Amino acid sequence: MTGDRARWCCEDLNEAIELAAKRNKQGIRCIIDPLGELAKDPVSADEALSAAVQTIEAIASLGLHASIALKPTALGAAYDLDECLARAKELTRLAWKEDIAVELDMETRKYVDETLRMAIVLREDGQGPLSIALQAYLYRTPMDARRMDRIGAKVRLVKGAYAGDMDDFDGIMTAMLDNIDLLASMGRPFSIGTHDPRVIERIWKDRGLKGVMEVGMLKGLGDETKVKLAGKGWSVAEYIPYGKDSYAYVTRRENYLRNLSNLGVEPCP
To answer: Would you say residue 245 lies in a domain?
Structure first.
């Protein structure tokens, strides 16, 4: 793999596993995502299912400190919600059998309710480690965070990479910090996804967050900061996607950097 794509994602599962093992040695856990989204038929959704099964089996066999990321549209949410839920249940049962956490990614606004419903159904189906991404740029996120808290799902708070309720950078920043305060007040472990040096500076000063909050960053950004935080005793995770179906994912990452540049903001090193 060459070029920018190699920055953002791994070529295949073997490469993703190698990177995860390296990060584990640095005290960083990993979230591994077999790339794929918007499956339009059972064949595509079953391919995503198979890739996720292989990922879970690899994590288990190597004893990695890693979780599996699931995208609802990769499992069929775009064309059949019941089939999507059936695949998610199969994967979750397999992961939980191996004590591997399942992390539901949040996609476009269209799928927010379906993804929340998936979390509820999976929690009713079993009691293994489950987290769900919530997006700070949606006004509904505080309500959804409380809802997920009630079912015992861990929240992974991100700014958001799709179209949200707000696109003002400072407004999203304020919403991010307000939601961090809300999650901290709930007393349950949670994660945030950020490469914003202002957010990192804010949390660095709040030692009360150290035992309850995990800082998540993407492959391709913040490598120096990840290692520094982990070395200081913070919980840190790296999101590692892999696979050939990477165009949409890479495009979102490039747009993210472009938007930061237009605002005169540099991600943390």
So the answer is: yes
